[in-house]
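[09:14] KT: can someone run the structure on this one? pasting the chain below
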Amino acid sequence: MTLYELLLMLHIFAVIAWLGAGLVFTILIVRARASSDPQREAAYHADIGQLAPLLFIPASLATFVFGLLAAIEGNWDFGQAWVLIGLAGWLMSFLIGILYFKPESERIAELEAQGGTGVTEAMSRSKRMSAVDNFELTTLYVVAAAMVLKPTGDDPGVLIVLAAILGLVAVVNARALRGGAGAASAPTTP
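[09:31] RB: done, structure tokens below
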């Protein structure tokens, strides 16, 4: 096994942990909402707040570090479209996770624990959070597709399809971001 193969393998393992955890948590929030049990949804948000520093952040950082090292060792061109898509997608997801998901999950869990009007506000925030999660998780799948397909500027069809997927998910979830009722109740990720 070469150093490049080792770094690539570690990069892929980190991606599996990060993307897999995100998909499982999307399924769990859908199930919590379907149960109509505020306690179950509160537990979900408490878990997200606790697992962010234990799972999501380390897996995200490992994805970046091993991917960067593999790209350097493999002598990949950092100006290629698929590399830029990967870097942009990682940065967007990492920042949303640290700056939005972790603190918002903690706020939602606190509001739900208050009961009454706190639960109503928590449910509204939770729907908006699901809309952001749908877009962020879809972005990670698009990045994974770009890593496999490795489109360049000479592959406009692939780039257009990837952008169209993100655009569609953004449009579907935009209503929930504005506070619309019923939007983003189910994941729109592949």
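[09:33] KT: thanks! DSSP finds five helices and no strands in the chain.
[09:34] RB: yep, looked fine to me
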